[in-house]
């Protein structure tokens, strides 16, 4: 009897794993089937032509992708202490570390702050060709002026922790995000650029999921 229950348990685990795998496959299929690459777009050409982010024309990307900005009017600046170390690297393989912003470092944050000048700043990151690796500039007022304008590679997991700290800070108002979903807000603050690229047919980021993009599909042009 004990052996029978053991095998029944194993079977349930396998069925659960199989079901989860099918669900993930469907989600990925939905994500890719709704994406139409416009390979003549300047941003798309940059990602198609260059494997490494430092080879790309970031000013061209900014001018093409961000001819508008999300509004910050009426929203106060929030200060948040970093919930973890944020490590900045000079290469996408994360072998050569440039510097580390230590846990507890205070950073300024303004919800929906994203103009051309903000591209890459803080958690407002660019997708790379490697899943889980983002291309950024340091958070404001955390490093010297020269370092502040340089670009580095960071782990998306660290940026997500910072985004969560922002969403859970005392000054955060859930209504700032359409629909009031904290979890979507946390991901969209890091993946905002990815969503723009997706909707405009510029680049399909490996960090995106169908759940991330689903709220915007009705707005897709």
What is the tally of helical segments?
Answer: 7
Report the radius of gyration as a whole number of Å: 20 Å
How confident overall, as mean pLDDT? 80
Q: What would you call the structural class?
A: alpha+beta
The biggest sheet amounts to: 3 strands, antiparallel
The counted number of beta strands is: 7
**Helix-strand string:** HHHEEEEEEHEHHH
- Which runs of at least 5 residues are low in confidence (pLDDT < 50)? none
Query: What is the CA-CA span between the terminal residues?
Result: 60 Å
What is the secondary structure topology, with strand pairs?
Layout: H1 2-33, H2 42-49, H3 58-65, E1 78-81, E2 86-89, E3 97-101, E4 106-109, E5 126-127, E6 133-136, H4 145-148, E7 152-155, H5 156-167, H6 182-199, H7 210-213
Antiparallel strand pairs: 1-4, 2-3, 5-6, 6-7
Structure keywords:
221 residues; alpha+beta; 2 domains; three-stranded antiparallel β-sheet; two-stranded antiparallel ribbon; 7 strands; globular
């Amino acid at each position: 009897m004990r052996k029978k229950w053991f095998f029944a348990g194993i079977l349930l685990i396998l069925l659960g794993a199989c079901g989860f795998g099918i669900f993930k496959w469907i989600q990925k299929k939905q994500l890719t089937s709704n994406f139409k690459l416009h390979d003549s777009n300047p941003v798309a050409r940059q990602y198609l032509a260059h494997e490494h982010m430092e080879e790309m024309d970031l000013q061209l990307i900014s001018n093409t992708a961000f001819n508008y900005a999300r509004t910050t009017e009426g929203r106060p600046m929030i200060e948040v202490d970093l919930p973890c170390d944020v490590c900045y690297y000079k290469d996408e393989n994360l072998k050569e570390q440039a510097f580390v912003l230590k846990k507890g470092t205070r950073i300024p944050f303004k919800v929906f702050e994203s103009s051309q000048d903000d591209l890459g700043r803080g958690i407002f990151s660019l997708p790379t060709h490697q899943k889980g690796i983002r291309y950024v500039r340091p958070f404001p007022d955390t490093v010297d002026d020269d370092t502040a304008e340089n670009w580095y590679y960071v782990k998306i997991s660290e940026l997500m922790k910072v985004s969560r700290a922002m969403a859970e800070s005392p000054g955060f108002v859930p209504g700032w995000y359409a629909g009031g979903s904290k979890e979507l807000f946390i991901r969209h603050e890091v993946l905002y650029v990815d969503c723009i690229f997706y909707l405009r047919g510029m680049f399909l980021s490996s960090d995106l999921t169908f759940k991330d993009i689903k709220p915007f599909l009705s707005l897709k042009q």
